[in-house]
Write a structure and sequence with these properties.
Shape: globular
Largest sheet: 8 strands, parallel, barrel
Radius of gyration: 25 Å
Bound molecules: 3-hydroxypyruvic acid, zinc ion
Number of helices: 27
Number of strands: 12
Distance between the termini: 37 Å
Helix content: 40-55%
Length: 629
């Protein structure tokens, strides 16, 4: 082990050591920590090999094609929007952006694309491998959307990795492009309302760890719910990109609740509230091409800040929607590399580049390199096939059900879990019906989850709308639905449907003020103390995570105690374990690589335990695992 420590030391490997090398590095004799880290990883690999990922059952380890790395570029990343922003600050940067003739692209491959295609499961290691390549090869972007939304809790909950580490990785690897995140206003990156000081602290930590641009939205388009977040982003001197969430259809004269005036008025309010940029957040992909032209034109007339349009493919019309927006003067549009595009995700950045051929606003980009990036993502996407249920062809039913791209695959998954896998068509219809019962609300996380929960509840119990009105007083509605009608996410535009609200609340009184206003501030020092008692880390980032997701954070901590930092494992090993005779290399930190070989495992003994046999850096090791099946 001493020898391995010497051989693996970066100074030794680089040849930059001197005669005092061994005296200067007493840690070379410290064998325990690495051995301990190794043992934990072996425990994880053994468990996943025998029991499958998250206990889903062991699977044959598939044969994957080799990763297709984009070519190595021997240049420094060209100066980009990050440098411009650092030079100008948020207000002048926003003005600069408005003055650019070209349309800018935001690359959502790293956040919304995989959130919408395969339940947010893209692991940091698969991003870290090419983030630096993107910085060098695809520099002329507005931003990389790489954090926030569902990535925060999924990272802890399902990937057992630290989302803050991911953000720091992006900042290190991408010095030239703005890093953007999605923030659910008073819901931060969660599904409920948080105390104001929790929201503020989260924004401070996100800014300190590398976020430049915050897309702030509220799931009911309530500006009241966004003031605190906007204010804090501005206090951090970062870009407040504030969103109006788009629902319905401004072209439909029969559906007037969310008409063009509604959006124009909201945009004016957002500008007044301090937005540096206004985002049109079309989370379900409902904005039709002509509507896109009308809306962007109207907003460009109504406000002076740049307009950033976000949509999802779904219907198959989104490239056309963007094209019309570009004609109307939109400043930035959201796209993903082809391999992570379409379906419920964003449209393809590669396609959009070509769609703008001959257009005076086409951005200058290295399309060959974008193809290489896309090949890379195409080559790692099969790792995620367990959760990748993307639809292969356009589906225009989205105009009826209006389900957000990020919810579609998730709800389908949830439906299966509660035994409603074969009722998907009914579920889509019911989703629409529930929305109408709720008064036609904005549907985006977390309000979309409330509609989804009510939908599953009604389909599962074979309840009709009439049943709800007739026997609602004896029904136990899902918790999220009750809280929604209590006003815990705020009040929808034009209020709650009173009759339904009375039925659901069974006499309880809703709150009528901003939810954050009635939540007492969190005592962070008390939390720090609690974490320390638990033996967890007590950085401000850990405190923030614990405030948002106490249970998820605690589970993550316990997981790390048992299995160590599994983010270092390659993705096939992480999801499928190892094959007999397979050997992998695991880099646990720069210059420190473990060599792990799996030689096989025993039949279960009478207690159902198996012994998995490894070679760990050449030494035989055996790990006992309980076979859960
Ligand atoms: C999120 O809040 O995670 C979303 O992507 C909403 O569209
Ligand atoms: Zn989206």
């Amino acid at each position: 082990h001493f020898l391995i420590n010497v051989l693996e030391h970066p100074e030794f490997q680089s040849g930059s050591y001197n005669v005092n090398f061994i005296e200067e590095h007493p840690e070379l004799f410290e064998l325990k920590p690495d051995r301990d880290r190794g043992t934990k990883l072996l425990r994880y690999i053994a468990d996943v090999t025998i029991n499958g990922y998250s206990g889903a059952g062991a699977q044959e380890v598939p044969d994957f094609e080799p990763i297709q790395m984009p070519s190595t570029l021997d240049v420094s990343p060209a100066s980009g929007t990050k440098q411009k922003f650092d030079e100008l600050g948020p207000d002048k940067f926003s003005k600069w952006l408005s003055e650019q003739k070209q349309v800018f692209f935001t690359d959502t491959t790293w956040r919304d694309a995989h959130q919408s295609l395969f339940a947010t499961r893209l692991r940091t290691i698969d991003m870290a491998r090419v983030a630096g390549h993107a910085a060098k090869g695809v520099p002329n972007l507005f931003s990389l959307e790489c954090w926030g939304g569902a990535t925060f809790d999924v990272s802890y909950r399902f990937l057992h990795e630290d989302p803050w580490e991911r953000l720091r990785m992006f900042r290190r690897e991408v010095p030239n492009t703005l890093l953007q995140m999605l923030l659910r206003g008073a819901n931060a990156v969660g599904y409920t309302s948080y105390p104001d000081n929790v929201v503020r602290q989260f924004i401070q930590r996100a800014a300190a760890n590398g976020i430049d641009a915050f897309r702030v939205f509220d799931s009911l388009n309530s500006l009241d719910n966004m003031h605190v977040a906007i204010d804090e982003v501005r206090a951090q001197n970062k870009i407040a990109e504030v969103a109006l969430c788009y629902t319905g259809d401004i072209l439909d004269g029969a559906r007037t609740k969310y008409n063009l005036d509604y959006y124009v008025n909201m945009a004016k309010d957002l500008e007044k509230a301090g937005a540096n940029i206004i985002a049109i957040k079309d989370m379900a992909g409902l904005l039709k091409p002509q509507a896109s032209y009308n809306l962007v034109s109207a907003l460009k007339d109504a406000v002076s800040v740049p307009i950033h349009l976000h949509t999802h493919e779904g219907s198959g019309n989104s490239i056309y929607t963007y094209g019309r927006a570009v004609d109307a003067g939109v400043d930035v549009i959201d796209l993903a590399y082809s391999a992570f595009a379409n379906g419920t995700s964003q449209p393809s950045m590669n396609s959009m580049y070509y769609a703008l051929s001959g257009h005076e606003r086409q951005p200058e980009m290295n399309i060959e390199y974008m193809e290489e990036m896309s090949h890379y993502f195409g080559s790692i996407r099969p790792y995620y096939k367990g959760v990748d249920k993307a639809e292969a062809y356009p589906n225009t039913e989205v105009y009826q059900h209006e389900m957000p791209g990020g919810q579609y695959s998730n709800l389908q998954q949830q439906a299966k879990m509660v035994g409603l896998g074969d009722r998907w068509t009914d579920i889509k219809k019911m989703y629409h019906q529930v929305n109408m019962m709720f008064g036609d609300i904005i549907k985006v996380t977390p309000s979309s989850k409330v509609v989804g929960d009510m939908t599953l509840y009604m389909v599962q119990n074979n309840l009709t709308e009439k049943d709800i009105y007739e026997k609602g007083d004896v029904l136990d509605f899902p918790q999220s639905v009750v809280e929604f009608f209590e006003g815990r996410l705020g009040t929808p535009y034009q209020g709650f449907p009173e009759k339904l609200q009375k039925i659901i609340l069974k006499g309880a009184r809703p709150i009528t003020v901003r939810p954050g206003a009635v939540l007492p501030p969190t005592d962070f020092e008390h939390i720090r103390h609690e974490l320390s008692e638990m033996g967890a880390q007590t950085t401000d980032e850990d405190i923030s995570a614990y405030c948002l997701y106490p249970k998820v954070y605690q589970d993550y901590n316990k997981f790390v105690k048992d299995f160590g930092d599994v983010s270092v494992l390659d993705t096939p090993t992480f999801f499928f374990g190892m094959k007999r005779g397979e050997e992998i290399q695991v880099t646990i930190e720069k210059g420190k690589t473990l060599i792990i070989k799996m030689n096989g495992f025993s039949e279960p003994d009478e207690d159902g335990n198996r012994i998995v046999l490894f070679e760990f850096n050449g030494q035989p090791r055996s790990i006992k695992v309980h076979d859960k099946h």
